[in-house]
Amino acid sequence: MSFFKRLKDKFSPSEEKNKEIENQEEQPVQDLEPESNEKENPEAVQFDDGLMSLDEFEEWESEQLGAKFKQGLEKSRENFQNKLNDLLAVYRKVDEDFFEALEEMLIQADVGFNTVMELVDELRMEAKRQNISETSELREVIVEKIVEIYVQDDEDIDRMNIENDRLNVILMVGVNGVGKTTTIGKLAHRYKQEGKKVMLAAGDTFRAGAIEQLKVWGERVGVEVISQKEGSDPAAVMYDAVNAAKNRGADILICDTAGRLQNKANLMNELQKVRKVIDRNVPGAPHEVLLALDATTGQNALSQAKSFKEVTQVTGIVLTKLDGTAKGGIVLAIRNELQIPVKFVGLGEKLDDLQPFDAESYVYGLFADMIDANESVENTTEEADQNDGK
Ligand SMILES: Nc1nc2c(ncn2[C@@H]2O[C@H](COP(=O)(O)OP(=O)(O)O)[C@@H](O)[C@H]2O)c(=O)[nH]1
Ligand SMILES: [Mg+2]
């Protein structure tokens, strides 16, 4: 099955699939058979109480995910798709001029210089290997290579280190305004919905109003917030919070911190102290140190990440406000230039707008119309071939 077809099957809403089935008589070459066979498989888990089967649920779940990424990446998609389509229209033949224009386009979308070079080199080789001479035939290869370059050999990169039967501690770091507190609220909501007992630690004692803001999130989500008064020692807050979380048998404790990058030495001391207090009470913790970065700040986000890596160990990135930028290529730059996985992306301001990052959902969000229109793309190519022949 082609890459686009597979993504389309995975993420596109079933209404469209249903329409396809209805239209099948007019369009005889539809390849929907295997899926309908699967549904009739007697081994498949089916409930006779009117609920969805597991297969149906998983299908529904990935369609929801597809819709979320599609919505959240709307600005980037307009940018990526339009520019790529323009490029394919201007440069019909695969040659150096085309590759250079493609490089330019990707760099402008914040993909990051080294990543662009790597990606376009891969494309040059692939075009040679498959003997592709029309740029329109590279469309799918480009999108597929983006996924490959992200995933590399590591399928599990975006998994969170959360285990049952222990207190899991997540430390949230990042400069002011990137979305730490908001992300903590959304994460708490997500884990609570999964049935976990979640608690929060108001470790940003520096910024006025930060404690109150976390408490508001705690109330909204329905989880307990451990706090002290403004200006108190964050390490003392963590000490209280870890003990409270242990006493209450919490599964997950998420800790807010102040992001004072202006003074690196201070920040380093503060984070080291906080980590020490946590580790002393829960050996091995924090299990995750998530760095929040604001996608709309582009290359600046990359330099923040480099600075934070110098002061503390970071296990994952939360890339916030991806919905607010047309330059969604920053995801690839972060992955390739920092070697830190993006574990979550913020796709909006609502509670359920924080989603686990996944390279396929991401490229679906970036190229959804192109992927959904897969058939017509193939037709266009055929038409173009015919026109060329005339
Ligand atoms: N559009 C959008 N806004 C976000 C997202 N995440 C956070 N924000 C907004 O960013 C602003 C700063 O967030 P806050 O959590 O206070 O940042 P902090 O200083 O790092 O704790 C708030 O207005 C949030 O609503 C996101 O994914 N999308
Ligand atoms: Mg905050």
Automatic annotation (TrEMBL):
Residues 70-97 form a coiled coil. GO terms for molecular function: GTP binding; GTPase activity; signal recognition particle binding. GO terms for biological process: SRP-dependent cotranslational protein targeting to membrane. It is an enzyme of class 3 (hydrolase). The keyword Calcium does not apply. Its EC number is 3.6.5.4. It comes from the Bacteria. Residues 9-22 have a biased composition (Basic and acidic residues). CDD domains: FtsY (cd17874). Residues 341-354 form the SRP54-type proteins GTP-binding domain. Residues 1-44 are annotated as: Disordered. Keywords: Cell membrane, Coiled coil, Cytoplasm, GTP-binding, Hydrolase, Membrane, Nucleotide-binding, Receptor. GO terms for cellular component: cytoplasm; plasma membrane. Its main location: membrane. GTP binds at residues 174-181, 256-260, 320-323. It is found in: Cell membrane; Cytoplasm. PROSITE patterns: SRP54. It catalyses: GTP + H2O = GDP + phosphate + H(+). It is a peripheral membrane protein. Part of the signal recognition particle protein translocation system, which is composed of SRP and FtsY. Involved in targeting and insertion of nascent membrane proteins into the cytoplasmic membrane. Acts as a receptor for the complex formed by the signal recognition particle (SRP) and the ribosome-nascent chain (RNC). Belongs to the GTP-binding SRP family. FtsY subfamily. This is Signal recognition particle receptor FtsY. It comes from Mammaliicoccus sciuri. The gene is ftsY.
